[in-house]
Amino acid sequence: MPVRRWLTDLGRTMAHPLTGFVTMLNPDLLVVDSALGPAAEPLVDGLRDTLERRTPPMVHQGLDVRPGRLTTTAISTGAAVLAAQRYVERLVSGRTPLSPQPR
After folding, report:
1. End-to-end distance of the chain based on CA atoms, in angstroms?
2. The pTM is what?
């Protein structure tokens, strides 16, 4: 299938600049944007292929590359977490939670 091949090649191309990042920081997880939907799978395959060939075994063996998955509540959950973080920041800084932040 030409589209799948193109997406896999795109993943391989995207992996080239990531090899230095992955080698230096040695992350456990790399997540591909969930907005790609089913197109993310071949892109992830290409990323994995190149990262396995261009990084040391101890780096790529511990790396999980996967497509992201957003649930229907992702936006509201993220907003709630952000609001809670800001609330705690204001409490810690000594400002009242409802006072406006200085600009």
Report:
1. 54
2. 0.66
Using CA atoms, how far apart are residues 66 and 46, in angstroms rounded to an integer? 11
> Whole-angstrom Cα distance, residue 96 to residue 48?
48
What is the Cα 35 distance to its own chain's centre? 12
Per the CB < 8 A criterion, the answer to whether 11 and 46 are in contact is yes
Q: Is the pLDDT of residue 95 over 90?
A: no
Number of H helices, E strands in the chain: 4, 2
User: What is the tens place of the pLDDT at every residue in 34-89?
Assistant: 888 889 999 999 999 999 999 999 988 989 999 988 777 878 888 999 999 988 88
What does the alpha-carbon distance between residue 76 and residue 74 come to, in Å, rounded to a whole number? 6
Type of residue found at 57: P
